[in-house]
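Query structure, 386 tokens:
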């Protein structure tokens, strides 16, 4: 069988697993969204959303460069794992220590967000470790394991979040604690299953990981700002309630549409990386073109359907205090479609390790986004943010 046929066979095999891997977390995330949006008011949901902004930004800055480097360079060999796990432990310990120091300094200034702080720090560590270990399994083309661990994490997250929010803590911070604890427990199991008995600090490997992953911090942090920065500006230029309305409707479309879009990217990435031998640019271009066709066939219809159904979905799923934000959903759906489509085009840049160029592109996008938000939010509110 030609290599291209092998690659396509692996792609469709993994596409099935990644579709399942995304479905259960999305379904359970939707259940959580329904419960919490009907239980807590927009102000509480807005504070939770801004705490998630903090978690996403810090987790990206600390861990995502390692995740991307693992996706790019890891293979079926276990040679890199001891060094990767050593780095992961050092990053986790450093995050907790720095978080404790910053709390002692800024605690009087945290105000309504004081209750979210400790949960946010542990969520940063848990999500970071989970994503790095997921990248290891994904890079090694073990889509079945990715499916198992993502599903397990989602089940733990929902059950713990509900128990902590409604039985133990009796406030929305339990949602964040549930995320933190579930991610840490799942990451521990994933790490133990890799059966690494030694720790190493391979300087040459670390330099290679940093050279690739370091510039990716700019790109990943830019992605975080594009996704969450508008909520910070909404809080500043409008209100916390506007953040809650915006975030709940944004999350609704973000949970549903990637069920169709994301599996194509997840299945394509490791196959493309595994096929690259440093010289076969034409073969890689053919793969990317083929995967792009599949993405368009699947994605266009899903995006149009999500836009058409935005109003009834928001009305049925979210509480009455939130459904007015349905007007942002068609805009966010289109944005998610084009962003995920661009991810396939990025694979060529990633293979050539042109991560600095990727960071420059997203840096310009962030500047435009912030500028437009600044001028549109005062008059248009959360619609201007979208």
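Result returned for the query:
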């Amino acid at each position: 069988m030609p290599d291209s046929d092998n690659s396509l066979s692996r792609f469709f095999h993994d596409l099935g697993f990644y579709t399942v891997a995304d479905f259960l977390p999305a379904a359970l995330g939707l259940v959580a969204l329904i419960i919490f949006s009907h239980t807590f008011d927009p102000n509480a949901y807005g504070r939770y959303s801004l705490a998630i902004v903090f978690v996403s930004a810090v987790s990206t800055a600390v861990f995502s460069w390692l995740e991307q480097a693992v996706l790019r360079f890891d293979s079926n060999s276990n040679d890199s794992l001891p060094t990767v796990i050593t780095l992961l432990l050092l990053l986790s310990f450093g995050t907790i220590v720095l978080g404790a120091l910053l709390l002692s300094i800024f605690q009087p200034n945290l105000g309504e967000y004081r209750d979210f702080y400790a949960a946010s720090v542990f969520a940063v560590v848990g999500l970071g470790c989970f994503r790095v270990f997921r990248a290891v399994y994904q890079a090694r083309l073990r889509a079945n394991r990715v499916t198992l661990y993502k599903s397990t994490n989602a089940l733990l997250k929902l059950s713990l979040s509900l128990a902590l929010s409604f039985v133990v803590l009796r406030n929305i911070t339990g949602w964040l604690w549930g995320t933190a604890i579930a991610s840490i427990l799942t990451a521990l199991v994933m790490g133990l299953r890799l059966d690494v008995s030694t720790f190493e600090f391979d300087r040459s490997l670390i330099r290679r990981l940093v050279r690739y992953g370091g510039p990716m911090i700019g790109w990943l942090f830019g992605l975080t700002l594009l996704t969450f920065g508008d909520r910070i500006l909404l809080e500043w230029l409008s209100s916390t309630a506007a953040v809650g309305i915006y975030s709940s409707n944004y999350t609704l479309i973000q949970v549903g549409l990637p069920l169709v879009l994301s599996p194509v990217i997840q299945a394509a990435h490791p196959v493309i990386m595994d096929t690259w031998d440093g010289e076969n640019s034409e073969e890689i271009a053919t793969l990317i073109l083929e995967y792009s066709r599949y993405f368009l066939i699947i994605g266009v219809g899903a995006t149009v359907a999500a836009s058409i159904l935005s109003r009834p979905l928001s009305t049925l799923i979210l509480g009455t205090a939130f459904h007015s934000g349905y007007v942002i959903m068609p805009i966010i759906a289109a944005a998610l479609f084009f962003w995920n489509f661009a991810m396939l085009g990025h694979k060529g840049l990633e293979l050539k390790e042109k991560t600095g160029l990727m960071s420059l592109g997203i840096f310009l996008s962030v500047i435009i986004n912030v500028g437009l938000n600044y001028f549109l939010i005062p008059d248009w509110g959360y619609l201007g943010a979208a």
